[in-house]
Amino acid sequence: MEFRYPNGKKFKSTAKSKQFSEKKLQREAISHGKRGMTLEEDLNETNQYYLDVGKAVIHKKPTPVQIVNVDYPKRSAAVIKEAYFKQASTTDYNGVYQGFYIDFEAKETRNKQSFPLQNFHDHQLSHMEQVEKHNGIAFVIIRFSLTEEIFLLPYQSLEKYWTRMKQGGRKSMTKEEIQQNGYQISLGIQPRIDYLTIVDHLCK
Amino acid sequence: MEFRYPNGKKFKSTAKSKQFSEKKLQREAISHGKRGMTLEEDLNETNQYYLDVGKAVIHKKPTPVQIVNVDYPKRSAAVIKEAYFKQASTTDYNGVYQGFYIDFEAKETRNKQSFPLQNFHDHQLSHMEQVEKHNGIAFVIIRFSLTEEIFLLPYQSLEKYWTRMKQGGRKSMTKEEIQQNGYQISLGIQPRIDYLTIVDHLCK
After folding, report:
1. Which of A76, A94, A101 is the best mutation test for B, with the most CBs of B within 10 A?
2. Where are the domains of chain B?
3. I want to staple A108 with a disulfide (CB 3.0 to 4.6 A). Which of A143, B29, B55, B185 is the partner?
4. Domain A22-61+88-203 falls in which CATH fold?
5. Quick check: A189 contacting B, CB < 8 Å?
6. What DSSP character marks residue B14?
7. Which residue of A10, A82, A93 is the best one to mutate when testing the B interface, meaning the one whose CB has the most B CBs within 10 A?
């Protein structure tokens, strides 16, 4: 629909309304820069590979959205006209591998020597705790974007540093702590991030 | 922002834009009437109960939405201005129970004597097949809304009727077939739909 001013000139909305791309959204919506993008793509490709070769069924959950207003135009699909990003109450990825329930969150940082714990949330930590209690396998995959180093850190280790922070300690894990408690994953071609080889160790 | 006609009269959009409630959306977006609502609420309550008493960690996945256009107003949260409902590529619910990976879809019908198979989709069936192959437990929970009868039907049985349809047979399962191959779940107070008691049988 077009609006015109009394002088006939077309009205142009001044509200910034950008064409949306998943990439852009990710970059802009996440408050810490470019974090979160490439890692997600790599993991999606990895999971697709695992699915294709029949190794595991692991998916990323859809982004949770709070829908406020929906249009139902005649003869066409419902259009969501107003919605907001919601904070997830669980982790982003889960699925099944050799009968094991797998559950993890993936995050990146542009820091060089430490990983900020503010990347995670209280309810994600409690979710992972619950998962472990029910004999699932919970962990985080973290990436230092600048050096492209990727680590799998089991929930138990994350929890240790989380508790330290809650007790007034530092708000991040040092890279050294991650190296000592986690498992480095080298970037591959197919799959890109072969985290299930690490999960094999955790299962034992 | 307000628009005014040259005569000063306020412009009112004629596009139907309704205040959104999850309930309404569910009722209107789903093509088969009121199906899908109460069952979802009951299952969410049931899963919350399981979580609270430490019995299992099972969640409904967020509704998948294709985001097309996002506004980034200064000083406030990003607003999704255009988005569409996407068909889910997996089932709606998954989680962990006693170390078992649990995966299911839940659907209702207002039919009395049969359950239409069009409630499910090819990719959901293949997803459940994959889950079973990896030693997860896959099933559907179906509800005859008019009589409030709820059944858990294991994937293997659903697959039988799905194949029959694909081979040119009937497009639904009869209630009798469901009674013979599934397990009826009686409605309770807490939890509302105690499907894990049935899952206990399936694990053995």
Report:
1. A101
2. 22-62+88-203
3. A143
4. Trna Endonuclease; Chain: A, domain 1 (3.40.1350)
5. no
6. -
7. A82
